Each structure stands twice: as C-alpha cells, then as structure tokens.
Amino acid sequence: xxxxxxxxxxxxxxxxTSLTACGDDAGEGAEGAERLDSVTIEGEVGSAPKVTWExxxxxxxxxxxxxxxxxxxxxxxxxxxxxxxxxGNGFTExxxxxxxxxGGAPEQITVDxxxxxxxxxxxxxxxxxxxVAVTASAEEAFGQAGNTQLGxxxxxxVLVIIDVIExxxxxxxxxxxxxxxPDPVFEKGEPVRFDFKGIAKPKPDGELLRSVxxxxxxxxxxxxxxxxxxxxxxxxxxxxxxxxxxxxxxxxFALTGVVGGWTYGLSGLKVGTRVLLQIPPxxxxxxQDKENIPPNSTLYFIVDIISAK
Length: 309
Fold this sequence. Notes:
Layout: H1 8-15, E1 33-34, E2 39-42, E3 50-53, E4 57-58, E5 63-68, E6 80-89, E7 94-98, E8 107-110, H2 117-120, E9 131-137, H3 138-142, E10 157-167, E11 174-175, E12 183-187, E13 190-195, E14 209-214, E15 226-235, E16 243-244, E17 251-254, H4 260-266, E18 274-279, E19 299-308
Parallel strand pairs: 1-4, 11-14
Antiparallel strand pairs: 2-3, 5-9, 6-7, 6-8, 6-10, 9-10, 12-13, 14-18, 15-16, 15-17, 15-19, 18-19
C-alpha cells in the first residue's frame, strides 16, 4: 500500500490542462433541459449537495452560476484553496464523484494557469464561502477525450458543484523531543515497528509533530519535490506496521500526492535526514477506513529521506 491521498488521482485528472485519458464515444450528447434547468441542487456550503435530476442536461461552453455567495475575500490568482466538489454526468444523470464521500476532508488546489476551464472559470469572481455550479460539455470541460476515469464520455455533459471552503494555510510541524513520541524498534539495524509504551493515546485534533533523529546534509526538501524515502508507518497501539519499505526498497513519492502530514512534515528537511512524524487524522486519511488503518487514526512514521528532486 502506498501512502497516497484517496482522491489524488481524481483531482489531478480534473485539474491538469492536458489530459491523456482515451475517451469513449458512448455518450450521444444530451438534448434535454438547458443546464441547471435539468436539476435541483439543495444543501449548504460544507455539506454534500443533494442533486435531483429532472431531465438530461444540455450544455456546450463552460458556464458558471453562483448558487450561494460567500462573504469571504475574493479568490485571487495564486491562492491555495480548500474545496469540496461534486461531479455529475448530465447524460446518464448520475453522480460521477464526490469529495464528500467516505468522510473525505476538503482538498487543496492552487488557482493558477494549470487548471482546466471547468475549474479555472469557477473561481473567476468567486468569494471564499461560495458554492458555485459549472455546466459544460465534456469536451469543453476535459478536452476531446472526456474523462473515462469518471465515466464521462466526450459527448456527455458535465455538472460540477464546487464549495470554496476557505483559503488554505499550510500547517507548520511542531518540533518535538523524541521522548514524546513512540520509540522505533530495530532489528538488524532496520526499524520493524514502534513501541508505544509510556505514550498517551493521541487526540483526534492533535498537531503535526516532528522529531529529527539524524539531520542530513543534502538538498533542502520543498513541497513540490519528489522524494525517495524508506519509511515505516503504524497506528497507535497496533502490533506492527500497516506499511513499510525497509524490507523492500526505497519508494519515490511526489509530495503533492501524499497525505498532508508527509507533505508538510518532510518539507524543510534535508536529504539524509531521519525523522519521526506524528500525523493527526486531518493530515492523514481522516474518517476513511483503509486496510489496517481505522477511521480517524493518528499515523506514526519513521522516514529516511534518501534523495529529492
């Protein structure tokens, strides 16, 4: 199991301006009601929208309508936002994806020229706290291929509902003595598990804690880099790790594609560093139930940063 955000691949496929997916011509183009006349959308910002389809949706160019206007600051180029989003197929009249599913936490995006039109235009004139609806043909939204990952063919139409939750402030790790974190247990020189003796059960709303065991002398790691690392991860009180690489081989990770605790816990360290991380649920997997990781788990890691580029 690789330590990746559950929805990272979906969000990446939605945001990037150049998509490589091969489309399916199954959709024949909706000829039903015009745009938002085809649906009823209920609910408040910050909760999953209730979408009731009345008819197939007809749409061509990207159009944006503000459903709920926020009272926060205007969204500007370069802002990093925490958002939730819901995507529906206007031809099949079905939900394709929702970041609200499975207790998902808001996801972070940067407002820049890498966004697809369906997202880029959503943030034009938007305010923090708003809910906006975007309608378009699949070709206008995602390009000629549509988006097969979401089950959206090139001739389908698309409804995207975006909640602009807040401007994202990256968390700063709290430098912590190693004595306040569980001890890694070593066999033949490699970590095999954590010993939680004397460590209190963590609170779900805890902070991101970091303890540098050995400081490296190499390149400084930043959040946009890909790092290659050895690691071992375990949840509190477990008998053994839920994942580790020391018995296999080092693993490359794009820090934009892992849980936030890794992104911000490793940023600012140098290549060659060995570090302990305590990652709270909101910077890990949140309420999602993953293999050997119960919902709302605090994650513990020992990480050796081998390289970064």
